[in-house]
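Handout, page 2. Input:
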Amino acid sequence: SKAASIEIHNQLNIQPFARCIEMKEACYSATAAIQLAKDFLSNNPNKKVLVIASDIARYGLNSGGEPTQGAGAVALLLSHNPRILELNDDSVAYTNNVYDFWRPTSEKYPVVDGALSKDAYIESFNTVWNEYAKRTGHEVNDFESFCFHVPFTKMGEEAFKTILNENVEDSIKNRLMDAYQDSVLWNRDVGNIYTGSLYLSLISLLQNHTFQAGQKVCLFSYGSGAVGEIFSGSIVEGYDKALDKEKHLDMLASREQLSVEEYETFFNRFDNQEFDFERELRQDPYSKVYLHSIADHIRTYKTEE
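Output:
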């Protein structure tokens, strides 16, 4: 299918000799894109890569997965001169064929086995962490904090506790769990945004926790089906100057609360592409780009003056 990145390329007026692709693998695809970008940049030191983590975070109404829906996207700019986080060369990935979440060809919404998905997530984290620790020699105390993909905030916490065992001092456990709570503040407020979830967690951590340059963050990415990956990054000197916490808090505060009836009405109309373009799709004060119309299944986006 046509990549959404082409529309973004157009709206951002990026020069034409750029490669635009779209990647898919449940909630893991943004991490796959980052690793692909990192490999590309290793041979192209003067280039930059824009990774946008966005997804269709929709279950059916009254389904078991409905409470874990969210809405949002995260953009990450990668280059050889990072201002926030320097990615380390220590990634370990793990793949296991599990039907904990998928969307059958004939279905509009995904199917999820909640109990299996929770078990598969924790098993994936434990397996890839053990392999990561074996390959790198790292222990939990080597990191200032951990970040997780969080379908709901207790999921990451339960997985994390499995490695904070009797061999880890209580002071270290308390430090890491405090940092974990900093990392899920905004996930708790926004909900599960699927492939962007880990990176929303990272933003929350960076803007609610105080770091020293060089401290390391361990990241666990997970996509049902299932692929898990652990990698790390080191905090860059002056990272806080590249953050915009006030704007992000304003964005969260400016959201409009809907009643259940309003939400369900919009949810049902969305499937039929029935939008109130003036009210529903042009109210974001933080973006000048908006969806203007849909005709013959073609979306037309415009930029406000």
